[in-house]
Fold:
Amino acid sequence: MAGGALGLTACRGHGNSSGAASGGPARSQSSWKTVSLSPSAEVGLNEIAYGNGNFVIMGSYYNTNLGEVSFTSADGLNWTRHAEPASTPMGSVAYGNGRFVMVSAGGNCEGCGVGIMTSADGYTWTAAQPAPSVNKHGLSGVAYGKGTFVAVGLRGEMMSSTVVILTSADGSVWSVAKTAFPNSAPAAVTYGNGVFVAVGTGAPGENAILTSADASTWTAAKAAPSMQTLKSVAYGNGIFVAVGQNRTGGAAILISSDGYTWTTSPYVLASSNLTGVAFGNGTFMAVGASHSGALPAILTSADGKAWIEQTIFPTAGGLNAVAYGNGGFVVLTDKGNVLNYR
Structure:
């Protein structure tokens, strides 16, 4: 597939940042490349993970009758399309214990099963055996740590659902770890510093961050700022970074050293929504949309406090997810393209 260079036209420092020293490596015009996985934009690229030398992308056809689709790549530039691994919308994908695990966001309805698939190579997928007592919910996030996969989502009908947390050693056989926290809706989960951290949306005044040291006993994080819609979380450089959108419509960035006590980053980006964050090569990269979705947003930071905003053209629209692997970041757009930085 063809790839062309994206022009990086501006790089603005915020907070205490000054250049690349505090916000990550400076980006040159030749650093970014774009690859079109869906020239006619018929596919939305939703989730990405890296493991076993390969990136794996999960996507959905905008024509819902066509189902789901996946792509794999070793270098982030040359991609292979594969037959759909699932028939329900994919919620998240992670790598651990020698395999990829994909969870489905297509539950939360009468008769909807929990969709969990596993794959050793990202090409061939096998249905897992989820806990039978949670057959009516959707899973939105999955992560691996301490020899355990953890999947988070909602159980029950949308108006009366509670958090469900599933665990598995191999990604194939699952058990229920927790069904509680009725005022929370988890969107993502990660592992770092000896703890699992799940983030999402809480009711006004409620925490939207859950933590666990053993994947079985979960507690609401301490002093988590309220009225945040958190959509992604990553760990690196000794800190957790969670991103999303705040109640005023601007970017939300929260940071924590232990996963239990959180503070708000001083960085401000109005009219923006951050949907993904990843860590690699000493740098956090957060992605999403700015200017009410009209333009992509890419931010970089070494410490989660001082961020550098990157303005990239000619890409329009928002960015959905980001992952680090094989020496570079790979970013998914909502126009069926992949942005690659090395």
In short: Helices lie at 20-23. The mean pLDDT is 81. The longest strand covers residues 43-51. The radius of gyration is 19 Å.
